[in-house]
Specification:
71% helix; 196 residues; mainly alpha; two-stranded antiparallel ribbon
C-alpha cells in the first residue's frame, strides 16, 4: 500500500513538472516576453496589496511556488491563472454547499447561489486569460481578466448587500480570489506591448 502511494505521488509530481514545462514552452509564443526569476516577477507586482494588507509579493511567491525558477512573464501568468482557477473552484464548491445548507438564512443562501452562477463566469474568464497567454493574444487576455473580475466583483456586491454576507467565510474567500485574479493579470501584463 505504501509503495502504491509513493508511486502515485511520484507520477503526480512528474505530470505536474511536465505540465509546467509544457506550459512554459507554450508561453514562448510571445515575442519580447521577458524572462526573469520568480522573485523578480513578484517584485513587479507589488504595486497593489493583497488580502488583509498582506503584501502582493508574498501572495505571488506562494502562487508561483513550484514554477520553474527562471521563466517568462507569460509562463508565470499561466501558473498564476491556474492557481486562481483552483482557488475559484474551491470557493464555488463552498458557495454551492452553503447555498443548500438549511441552517443558513434564506436570503444568505440565495446570495451564495448567485455567487455559484457568477463563479462559472469567473472560471471561464480565468481560463481565457491562460489560453490567451499561451498564444500571446493580449486582447483576449484582457477580456478574460475583465470577465473574471466582473463576475467576482458581482459576487462581492451580492454578499455585501445581504445581512451577514460580508461576515461570512465565503466573503473572505471571494476577496482572496479577486486578489489572485489581479495577480495573474499583473504577471501577464509584464509582457511589453508589441511595436506598432
Amino acid at each position: 500500500m505504501r509503495n502504491a502511494v509513493i508511486i502515485v505521488c511520484a507520477m503526480a509530481i512528474f505530470l505536474a513538472v511536465a505540465t509546467m514545462l509544457s506550459t512554459a514552452a507554450d508561453a514562448a509564443a510571445c515575442a519580447r516576453d521577458p524572462s526573469m526569476s520568480i522573485a523578480a516577477a513578484c517584485n513587479e507586482t507589488t504595486a497593489w496589496e493583497g488580502p488583509q494588507g498582506k503584501p502582493a509579493f508574498e501572495l505571488c511567491m506562494k502562487m508561483l511556488h513550484g514554477a520553474p525558477e527562471s521563466s517568462t512573464a507569460s509562463a508565470y501568468g499561466i501558473v498564476a491563472a491556474k492557481a486562481a482557477l483552483d482557488s475559484c473552484a474551491a470557493t464555488e464548491r463552498t458557495a454551492s454547499k452553503l447555498s443548500h445548507d438549511s441552517k443558513v438564512p434564506e436570503m444568505l443562501r440565495a446570495s451564495y447561489g448567485s455567487c455559484v452562477d457568477m463563479y462559472g463566469l469567473a472560471r471561464s474568464g480565468i481560463t481565457a486569460m491562460a489560453d490567451a497567454l499561451k498564444t500571446c493574444t493580449m486582447p483576449g487576455f484582457l477580456r478574460g481578466f475583465q470577465d473574471a473580475s466582473a463576475a467576482v466583483n458581482d459576487c462581492v456586491q451580492v454578499l455585501r448587500h445581504v445581512n451577514g454576507g460580508a461576515k461570512s467565510p465565503l466573503y473572505r474567500m471571494v476577496l482572496a480570489d479577486r486578489d489572485r485574479i489581479a495577480l495573474a493579470c499583473s504577471l501577464g501584463a509584464l509582457i511589453p506591448e508589441p511595436d506598432m
